[in-house]
Design brief:
Blueprint lengths: L8 E5 L4 H12 L3 E6 L5 H8 L2 H5 L2 E5 L9 H4 L4 E4 L9 H18 L4 E5 L3 H4 L5 H5 L2 E2 L19 H20 L3 E7 L1 E3 L12 H11 L1 E3 L9 E5 H13 L8 E4 L3 E3 L1 H11 L9 E3 L4 H4 L2 H9 L2 E2 L2 H7 L6 H9 L9
Parallel strand pairs: 1-2, 1-4, 2-3, 4-5, 5-7, 6-14, 7-11, 8-10, 9-13
Antiparallel strand pairs: 10-12
């Protein structure tokens, strides 16, 4: 299918979120018209930063209330749009039938629009590597776009902590299959790493684990990584993830159903992320923070084993660099911008 035209109209679901806000910001910077979809367009605590963007005053940015749980909420919004960046999180990842229903009604709105020709679906590296059996990472340690978690493992269930990655895989496939059936639009998947970098609104520091973890470090206490026991952070700057979404909307080289891992190639243990703050921003007088390990004792006893397994994994970003020409910011730059803004609430 065709890429979206320069200066066209793009609907962004989840626009009040950490990644979504940056997608809106950068689309406006590149001359697009944006329809920002949020749960409540009158909740200025969460959407005030969008209204403060220059595009809002000029009319290139419009805000639309759309409750993702309500079928048909995007019907009118998508009409006249050439692209959709679908970043919204569902209310829960514990119910795959519910996740499928949400995907189906968003897809129905795309089909009804008769104008959308490309959808970028935001997934996660969890959809590549979240395993219910860590030994699967030993057997298949190369983490690239065509790798999926072992879906035949009977322990891969939503009620056993696998719901998030299961829901993301379900959405990827639902959109790609629907696009193929339509023959009129295509769906491309972006699988970001652990998003860090400057937030655009104070409420964003409380949602999405990675920027919140850094905030807790500044407050004096932080936790060992429980998303993949003792896994290092596979980081990517949120601004690069936003750029990747836009390049996927624009590119003539992407194909329906393809996935792209957005990752800087940097890994850093959580303890080292904390230590980086004083190294990068000595003017803060950061005295360090207490590391808490909330994992069960049975897991803590295997810490060395888990760290070795993760250390043997090889996450790859060849496809996004080769196809889209992406270059990624170093983690140090992300930390400087995130921590260098007062209260983690400013900065572009």
């Amino acid at each position: 299918m065709a890429p979206i035209p320069q200066g066209g109209t793009v609907a962004v679901t989840g626009s009040a979120g950490f990644i979504g806000g940056w997608v809106v910001h950068q689309l406006l910077e590149e001359g697009y018209r944006v329809r920002a979809c949020v749960r409540d367009a009158n909740d200025d605590d969460k959407v005030g930063f969008l209204k403060a963007m220059p595009g809002y005053a000029s009319g290139r940015l419009s805000l639309h209330s759309a409750d993702l749980d309500q079928a048909g909420c995007f019907d009118e919004i998508f009409k006249g749009c050439q692209g959709v960046a679908h970043l919204s999180h569902v209310s829960t990842y514990d119910d795959m039938e519910y996740v499928k229903r949400v995907c189906d009604h968003v897809i129905n709105s795309v089909n009804q629009s008769e104008t959308v020709n490309r959808v970028v679906v935001t997934s996660s590296i969890a959809a590549v590597m979240s395993e219910s059996d860590m030994q699967e990472l030993v057997r298949r340690p190369v983490l690239y776009e065509d790798r999926y978690p072992d879906e035949q493992n009977p322990k891969r269930q939503a009620n056993r902590g696998q719901g998030y990655s299961m829901g993301k895989v379900l959405a990827e496939r639902a959109f790609a299959d629907a696009a193929e059936q339509s023959g009129r639009w295509d769906a491309i998947t972006c699988c970001p790493g652990d998003n860090v970098g400057p937030i655009l609104s104070a409420h964003q520091k409380n949602f999405g684990p990675w920027q919140h973890h850094i905030e807790t470090m500044l407050l004096g206490q932080y936790s060992q990584n429980v998303i993949g026991a003792y896994r290092a952070w596979f980081t990517v700057d949120v601004r690069d993830v936003a750029e990747a979404h836009i390049r996927m909307l624009e590119s003539v080289n992407v194909r329906n159903g393809e996935r792209y891992i957005a990752w800087s190639t940097e890994t850093r243990n959580v303890e080292d992320v904390c230590a980086s703050i004083d190294r990068l921003l000595p003017e803060l007088g950061f005295a360090g923070a207490e590391l808490i390990d909330p994992l069960p004792e049975s897991v803590q006893a295997k810490e060395a084993q888990f760290r070795a397994i993760w250390g043997g994994c090889e996450l790859r970003n060849d496809r996004i660099c080769d196809t889209l020409g992406m270059a990624f910011r170093p983690l140090d730059v992300s930390i400087q911008r995130l921590c260098g803004n007062a209260h983690l609430g400013r900065g572009r």
